[in-house]
Q: What sequence folds into this?
């Protein structure tokens, strides 16, 4: 098996999926009937590229099950972040009842253990990274390869200045924006520290962005998450996202 996996990773993965499907039908299987040279050579490698192929894990109150990978052509912004190394360093975790007919209201201690300690897959450990609002309602969470909880926190810090948020719900919502499926526009923006730098970039015809102050009254922010955009840039984004 090792020789086959080293020869062609994609073909070996397809054999593994076949084995998984057969084991779903019957809990005993002669693996040599699938993982052999004859079956390996029959696998046709697809020319279709999947930009995001993500590991999938089902967690129940009694076990952790590794499932076939999910294939996606869109992904989300966190997965496309250059610092995180692509979809191979992510996995998506589904919390499931056991048996499936029950409601997901038991086994919370084990789920808490998984969220706190992470999941080991081979030689790698994956820790809870974040989830969008809709994913949380569906008990779906994104994990990322990390050596420790501190490592995960450092990765989250690259997604924004979130350490000033004291409310857990607000923190999860802000972080969750990175995990909503989105289409890349291919537009690169230059960040400017000052208004003078911003104006100079605009005059040079560069696409740029800068921070502006929030409108606050009595300790409350009325512009949280809001911003301004020029008509020209809005048109380019709409065109890049194929909405016009």
A:
């Amino acid at each position: 098996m090792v020789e086959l996996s080293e020869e062609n990773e994609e073909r070996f993965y397809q054999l593994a999926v076949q084995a998984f499907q057969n084991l779903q039908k019957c809990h005993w299987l002669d693996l040599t009937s699938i993982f052999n040279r004859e079956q390996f050579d029959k696998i046709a490698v697809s020319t279709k590229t999947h930009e995001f192929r993500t590991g999938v894990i089902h967690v129940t109150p009694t076990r952790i099950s590794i499932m076939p990978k999910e294939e996606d052509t869109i992904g989300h912004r966190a997965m496309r972040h250059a610092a995180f190394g692509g979809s191979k360093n992510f996995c998506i975790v589904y919390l499931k009842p056991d048996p499936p007919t029950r409601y997901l209201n038991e086994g919370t201690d084990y789920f808490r253990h998984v969220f706190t300690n992470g999941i080991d897959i081979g030689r790698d450990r994956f820790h809870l990274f974040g989830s969008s609002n809709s994913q949380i309602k569906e008990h779906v969470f994104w994990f990322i390869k990390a050596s420790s909880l501190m490592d995960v926190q450092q990765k989250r810090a690259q997604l924004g200045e979130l350490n000033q948020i004291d409310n857990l719900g607000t923190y999860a919502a802000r972080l969750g924006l990175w995990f909503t499926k989105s289409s890349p526009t291919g537009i690169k923006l230059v960040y400017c520290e000052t208004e003078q730098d911003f104006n100079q970039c605009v005059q040079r015809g560069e696409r740029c962005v800068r921070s502006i102050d929030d409108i606050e009254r009595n300790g409350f922010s009325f512009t949280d998450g809001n911003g301004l955009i020029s008509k020209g840039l809005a048109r380019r984004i709409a065109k890049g996202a194929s909405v016009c």
About this structure: The chain has ten helices and ten strands. The two ends are 50 Å apart (CA to CA). Residues 190-242 form one domain. The longest strand covers residues 64-72.
